[in-house]
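Worked example (supplementary).
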Amino acid sequence: MAATIRDIKEQTGLSLATISKYLNGGNVLPENKVKIENAIKDLHYEVNELARGLVTKRTRTVGVLVYSVESLFNGTLLRYIGDSLRKAGYGLLICDSSNDPQIEAENVNFLISKKVDGIIAIMVSTEMDNLLPAKKAGIPVVLLDRPVQDGSIDCVKIDNRMAAYRAVNLLLKNNHKKIAIICSEKEYTGIERYKGYLDAMNQAGCEVDPQYIVAGWHSIEFGYEGMKRLIALEDRPTAVFFTNYEISLGAVMAINESDLCCPQDISLMGFDDLIMSHVVQPKLYMVIQPMKEMGEKAVEMLLSRIGKKEQELPMEIILGTKISDGNSIAPL
Amino acid sequence: MAATIRDIKEQTGLSLATISKYLNGGNVLPENKVKIENAIKDLHYEVNELARGLVTKRTRTVGVLVYSVESLFNGTLLRYIGDSLRKAGYGLLICDSSNDPQIEAENVNFLISKKVDGIIAIMVSTEMDNLLPAKKAGIPVVLLDRPVQDGSIDCVKIDNRMAAYRAVNLLLKNNHKKIAIICSEKEYTGIERYKGYLDAMNQAGCEVDPQYIVAGWHSIEFGYEGMKRLIALEDRPTAVFFTNYEISLGAVMAINESDLCCPQDISLMGFDDLIMSHVVQPKLYMVIQPMKEMGEKAVEMLLSRIGKKEQELPMEIILGTKISDGNSIAPL
DNA sequence: CTGTTAGCGCTTTCAG
DNA sequence: CTGAAAGCGCTAACAG
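After joint prediction of all chains, the assembly is encoded as:
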């Protein structure tokens, strides 16, 4: 069906070696160059990357593992990763784990069997385990957004704890004391952000009502439910901190359905500005992550690893965050 | 580095053929089976799909081309496609074209060179051109959501024109006559939905004020701008139809920033219910596409093509839509 | 059921 | 600069 290098050999009378050399940017006599180029056009020749990869052991492809393609956060990150990779001449293989550690493990093996040159992982599992096969196969891995327990892998992330700390501090500065949090307790980012919340509260000498800590999982549903729960409290909080995009979204839904008005009745602080802040009334104060840099740095880091044969010491890049202004906070 | 079938041969004393047979689910003596399985574990053996694909000419991988991973519509579709593919034992290679036909063309070649067994494409370009190389390489292609000019390729979509027609009809039934539309004029879906709008208006004998037709591109920005434009009109429409998710989002932003109240001042009808309708006040009426079925049907269709050697006649699957209730329409 | 042999399409020495 | 030959890791006949 498809033309091979051999067909080009037939048409040009040149040897396989010469054609291969041309294909890989080597020097070839101008006349031969023309011959080859014509043959390629005539035959619609396209390199068979399978065969090439088999011998070179490089596929110029990196695998990207995401916990969910449905999450806008990942979609945005993927876009930046894809851009950077393309510029560097790399293709990417995106694998969606649907928030399932089991599928994630399978995906890693899938990527290995596809012989990707490296992996960028936005993990669902917090353990190192799923990545072990990649390490064993000698494939460099860069974690993005979420490190794993064992900090032995390169990682690009933000200081989640600090970011949360500052967000809650802003609430405190507005004299809020009864500050609730809706967070995920299943994942690294959620746990860190919760710690940041505690840091701020403790430092301010605010004691935290256990009812104000709504910990569950990372989803719109949970945000919605969690907010409902807070709204139903007799001693309702005066401010709430949402620790990720999906939770923010769900929580706002719940508020919209309630009789509460923000910021008069309740002040809000969200996380991850992905369009929502512009669509939702009132505009939410939000913690902003530098998504573009995160994607770019991860690619840069991975590519530099791919070059070297020996793994150097693991490295961590921590990017800064900021808080966007809104009108969802009323001073008390 | 990585173990090969040859290493297993060494350890087990069996021949390559037997091992290969085992790997491909053939019958092997129980004792040999155990030997092989142990060796695989010991050596962390993982099939080299490059080598396998090189000889079988099947990679059990399908490429998915999306115009943008950032679009929630695609993210959702991708999730369903991924699920179905995984169930069928196929891996997927996602390529993001960043809304750029040029990148799209490159992506097609990338997929071909990776020897995918088939391609599911949610295209940015409306022309057949970008897909030609795949056709030439004999790789089956199924279009999703958006067909191309030349209707010679399998396609799964909705009846966009009819869906829009019915949406506008609902507005008309509520006695609206000054109905505006914000749509994309660059893409198939936008154009079809615009036609549906005209159908409904014409049938109702409503003449359409040219100012009410705001045609541009598929983006939040354009939705925002377009709505601003409509709001600024002296003779403002009483209802507006948004023809996709991003435009709906942007338009709602604009309304939120204005003095208008929906539905008292203006009635709204959106497209694609992706979370937004729950977060946005008031809840929008929206045209709903059966995204899950779309993804599943596309996979099903592609897989059935991959089996056969000869391309049968192209087929089109058109799925039904519905309109979700909201409270964004006030009768006049 | 098992082993031998011959490639898949490409790159890569190493001579010339 | 070009060519001949070997081989990447695997599967697919075909014998045995």
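Two points are worth noting when inspecting this output. The domain at 61-156+292-318 of chain B is CATH 3.40.50.2300 (Rossmann fold). Chain B has three domains: 5-56, 61-156+292-318, 160-290.
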